[in-house]
Amino acid sequence: MKSIQTVVVIATIGAALAGGQGLDPQTQADIARAQIGAIKALEQIDSGKIQAEIARAQAKMSEAMEQVQWPDLRLQMDRAGASLEFAKPFLDGFQFQFHPLGDMAFAQQQDFDRAREAQDRAREARDRAREAVDRAREAEDRNIEQYRDGISLIDDHRYERAIDRFDRVIEVKWSRADGAFYWKAYALNKLGKRDDALAALAEIPKQFPQSHWINDAKALQVEIQQAKGAGASPENQSDEDLKILAINALMNTEPERAVPLLEKVINDPKNNLGIKGRALFVLSQVRSDKAREIVSQYAKSGSNPDLQIRAVGYLGAFRSKDSQQTLADVYASVSDVSVKRAVLRSMMTSRDAAHLFNAAKSEQNVDLRREAIRDLGLVRATNELAQLYSTETNADLKETIIESIWLSRDVDKLIDIAKNEKDARLRSDGIHRLGMLRDTKAADALAAMYASESDKTIKVQIMSALWQDGACKQLVDAIRAEKDTSLKAEGVRRLGQMKSCKEATDYLMEIINK
User: Fold this and answer.
1) DSSP secondary-structure letter at 213?
2) Which of 12, 59, 251, 284 is spaced 20 to 30 Å from 143 by Cα?
3) Taking a C-beta distance cutoff of 8 angstroms, is the pair 15, 35 a contact?
4) pTM (predicted TM-score)
5) Half-sphere exposure of residue 482, counting CA atoms within 13 Å on the CB side?
């Protein structure tokens, strides 16, 4: 019936227009489903009254569409929703007249909608759990950043700002707050606030009786007390900076003499961690076996976590087989999670896929495994990631592997997951990641999957991925061949959200002109 066809076309195009003007995706989908469900029901009824109501509803829809530029989008959504209310009383009043086939189709649509809603609820619960984990990880990353920033500010002699960074770490009671107290005291001492510095140092054994920082805190305490006895002013600095500058200058002329001097500075227990850290940095710039050996010793040593983490970072920059093996040995020998994370980052810097792969397979700490997996993606270790995916049993970690496969841009492996993965959640993630690649091969594979897929939920996911990929032609071809009315409406709505797509515009006009 021509009038019903016209209503179907206008309803679907109306949904697409609304989708492009600020309505959230769920509202858009609800509008499309309500319209199509109403039309399928009305096709079974021959009533002048119903036809009149359709005309009035269409007028309301047209009125709503004319107001799409209103700044109050909430009011716009209410108006669009009101234009669909006409269907409910007539569906309720005439439901007993439905033809059995129409009734069955409508019931199938309701089952499909309920299944999607259940899936959405499960996905939302999973996303909330994942967000909680992500928030904890982000908090950890913020603390690491604050801590590192504080040390960099000390190196730049910006002590007031450094104290602010360490106070933030101390306030949240981060796991490395003992180190923050040390560096706060160091900065306070540089500013001449020695009583405050001593008070900060006193907190380390008080709050952290098993801390690795206690010996270094005692050494700095002695240094500060000696300075107090000398009555030094804030402007009077020690000669440590000058000493390091002199050794650095010596490296340019006689590096073989500079290396043992730097080693002596680092090993002297009287020296504070500030001068030791700078000496270690200068040493890391020397490309000699002896220099690498000294840095390796401190990477292996657990006497102070900060020096160890610095040395670990410097080893990654060497990118030699020996330094890579040293990092692997350090990773196997330490239990401190902060040091292990630093080793993984350094392995990534040195592009050591083999040892990252081993950590991703054997590490017991799930967060560290996740970090190793992500680092594999950053070094584009596609073969290792494919092996991990085939053997991993933890679904959350498999999602991380999919993310890393996407980071490595392994299109073929993502296509394999999207086509053959049995776990619906993981398959959905693979489809989603394919769409994020914005790659022609990925778009063609998605289109081929859509054509052979029978599950409506999966087809909606593929359609979403094609839209995300910007695969306009493939999406139009999929919609054109689609027989299911609700899927066709979903596709039209997606096309309405695509800009600068001639194929989409031509197809929409083709529907209108039928």
Assistant:
1) T
2) 284
3) yes
4) 0.65
5) 25
